[in-house]
Amino acid sequence: MRLEKILLLLACALALVLVATAGALIHHGALADARNVAAQRLAAAALAHDAQQEMRERELLLLTRQLAGDKGFVGYIAQSLQPSASGAIDTASIRDLLDERRGQLGIDVAMVLDSQGRTLVDTASYQPTQSDLAQHSAVSQVLSTLEPASGFLRGRERGMQVAVAPLLLGASSEGLLLAGKFIDDDFARRIGAIAGTDIALLTSTPAGPQVLAGTINADVRKELAAVAVQRGWPVANTAGETATFAIAGSRWLARASPAGKDAAAGSLIALLPGSAIDAFVAATDRSLWLWGGVLAALAVLLTALLWIVWLRPLDTLARSAAGITGGALEPVPATRSGGAGIAAIARALGRLVGELRETRDFEAYSADLLRQRTRSSETGPRAAAPISVDHGAAAQVTAGSVLADRYEIYARVGAGQSGVVYRALDRRHGEIVALKLLGPAAIAGAEHANRIKELLRAGARVQHANVARIRDVGQVDGVIHIASEYVRGISLKDALSRTGRIPLYAALRVSREICAGLAAIHAAGTTHGALNPANIVLGAGADTKLLDIGLVARPPGFDHHQPARPLLSDPTYLSPQQIVGQLANQHDDVYALGLILTEIFTARLPQPHGSASELCLARIEREATAPSRLWTEIPAPIETLLLHCLERDASRRLPNATAVLVELERCRP
Amino acid sequence: MSEGSERVAGRIELDAAPGQQISAGETTNAVVYYVPARGAPRPKADRYSVVTRNKRFEPQVLIVPAGSTVSFPNQDEILHNVFSQSPGATFDLGLYGEGQSAETVFNRATVVQIFCNVHHSMNTNVVVAPTPWFGRVGADGSFALGGLPAGPGTLSIWHPRVGMVTREVTLPLSAPLQEKLLATKPVIPDHQRKDGASYRPPAR
């Protein structure tokens, strides 16, 4: 089992390593995913910015086109531009009109430039008056083409997206209209909200990079400007560059891209705090630790469970099996775990041990018997019958005579209560048989004779290893003869008288074989009728066999009003019902079986010794003595079984030998 | 002018129709004039003035006898225009700046709505009365016209939020008139620029 244990531990370790490896892979995958998502969000910020910027550009171009196409608007400005007597132009009217339109149209700044690109009116004082914007890309384009154009304009503090259109009145150009929207924090916040990132719009100033607008606070802006100096933003290499750096003590992931086609637009810096990635990975890690822990715990638990439920009982069984191999037939320990499979193996092993032990003990017992044996024992009753019986003609047969033209008598083997047994040759089949001739005392009357014939006929059909088979039943000159299987061995009665109690395992085997034989008889629907130790032979082939099937004992004729009256037959192995005159049935067989088994296990009968009449009285009136009082070490299940066989009330007894056999099987260790 | 000794007097109460609001002092924008059933004598023309100041015409309602001349001096620092497209009284006094003025004669008895082509919110009304008996309503809503001939006649009441209301009366009156007017019109009348275009650019 050492290898199995090592393998189980290795499997557990492998499972843990797999869990750890899977966790590490998922962690790295999550980190890569988080970085990819971050990069996508940063790229999305640039797309959102471009879309917003393009939308504003179109809106501003549309507004300037419409205003410049409004003759009333252009005429009013044209008239305001007419120099007064003092040479001044009416900037107040222009400013008033521009302010009104600016408010109506939701633009931040509106300007009117003269035809040379100089500012005349600026609603936001965004540019110094008379600033020359002629060099501004959009303005110069409009001056040269008289077609609307768009671009970026940076003032003192702020940047602006602008559209410029010519103010044409007929064929004459009255100046230029410039409409602009600030690139401010609101603009950055809208982009940031779409992309889910922070935003900074960076522009170059003579003092260095400056954050025009953004969603980040002043400290971060300041440090971002410093980072921009290091990296050359927004002038150099801002085409989708992604960088990681620390600002204000925090790690940031940033992607720089051009903020517009016009270099004046500067750079868009999309920012994500490193904590966004960390949080994503941390969330994954939390799940990983949780589920990894659960899986690891499950692996360990499963290993422990396998160890306890499977490996340990298997180890126990393996040790038992090794013990069996080594000759130690110790009982297999009961396994409370291990499932049905292990339990089945344990039962089978236990049964095997039991059977081996029974065989070993029985062989030892048999050897012991042989040692004590003074002469060969053969079929038939051995001991002197307690009641002297006259068998009449049955006892007159001599060796060499032939009975019924079939049976050549070899020798008289013995005599019992019912008749005399001869060893004879069945000439018809050329086989040695035990030929029993029934004496006149064996039959009490017509009813008894009928019962015997009935049982003999039925018994002749029984074929079982533990039943001596009846081969022929006949009658010659009024003498009934029964030819049956000739069995060599020693009767149980002799064995018990020589050895006393049979050792437990050997006794179990003998008991089981007796039960099996009787069960076969009962299963054939008949009754043995004369079961007693003298009719049971411990065969030479190690099989126990039941003899004299059907030779129902003659009722003893006991009368408890006249207990002193001599009995007609031996009551030792009769049931209370038989004692009072009933002819044997299966219930009586069970009672007799209970008596015999008690004797096998304890060497004593469960009634006090004394006269036959006293025995009859005790059997009728008192419960059987508990077998544990006869042998204190008798296992409790066996005692229970015996008492169940020895119930005085036949209806409370086990119904037949099959039921006794089932219970006996359960008594096996 | 005095053709009799009768007097018509009363009080106007201005209420807002559902969805409208009136501000304090709006009642004083009401004007009245009386025309006897037998006809009114030709009133004496006079000169009147509506000043453009702080992008407003002042007063917002002017009642003048038919044939009167009204000048529109611009006291704002920006250019303004004065025009009307009221039926029977269309005119365009052009754009002019601070310190400049333009004028026009109102011969036909009607209500003339006057606007600035540049500034949508600027509007004034000149009620041209066909009678010498006209006047404004006081701060408390009361009015009184005196020197009227006895007999039947029509009292006309006009307010920019209400329009024209006429009452047939017979003088002398047994009791002062009580008129409840309902303001159903907006403060700035719905109007277009003189070329028919909208003041508000359509871009947004």
Estimate the mean pLDDT confidence of chain B. Answer: 93
- Outline of chain B: globular
State the shape of chain A.
rod-shaped
The number of helical runs of chain B is: 0
The low-pLDDT segments of chain A are 374-387
Task: Give a written overview of the molecule.
The complex is a heterodimer of chains A (669) and B (204). Chain A is α+β, with helices and mostly antiparallel strands. Helices cover 46% and strands 19% of the residues of chain A. Chain A has helices at 2-69, 71-81, 91-105, 137-145, 185-195, 218-231, 274-325, 339-372, 446-459, 492-499, 504-523, 576-579, 586-602, 612-621, 627-630, 636-645, 657-666; strands spanning 109-113, 119-122, 149-154, 159-169, 172-183, 198-205, 208-214, 241-247, 250-258, 267-273, 402-403, 407-415, 419-426, 431-438, 470-476, 479-485, 489-491, 536-539, 544-546. In chain A, the strands form four sheets. Chain A has a six-stranded antiparallel beta sheet, with helices on one face. In chain A, a hairpin with a 5-residue loop joins β1 and β2. In chain A, α8 (339-372) packs across α11 (504-523). The longest helix of chain A has 68 residues, at 2-69. Chain A is rod-shaped, with a radius of gyration of 60 Å. Residues 374-387 of chain A have low confidence and may be disordered. With 204 residues, chain B is mainly beta. Chain B contains no helices and 17 strands. Chain B has strands spanning 6-16, 31-36, 47-49, 51-53, 56-58, 61-65, 68-71, 80-86, 89-96, 103-106, 111-115, 123-129, 134-136, 142-148, 151-159, 163-171, 177-183. In chain B, the strands form five sheets. Chain B has a five-stranded mixed beta sheet with strand order 6-12-11-8-9, with no helix packed on it. A four-stranded antiparallel beta sheet of chain B has the order 13-2-15-16, with no helix packed on it. A three-stranded mixed beta sheet of chain B has the order 14-1-17, with no helix packed on it. In chain B, β4 and β5 (56-58) form a beta hairpin. Chain B is globular and about 55 Å long. The relative contact order of chain B is 0.29. The model of chain B has no long low-confidence stretch (mean pLDDT 93). Chain A binds chain B through residues 59, 62-63, 66-67, 70-72, 75-76, 79-80, 84, 90, 92-93, 96-97, 100-101, 104-106, and chain B through 55, 77-79, 95, 97, 117-119, 193, 195, 197, 200-204.
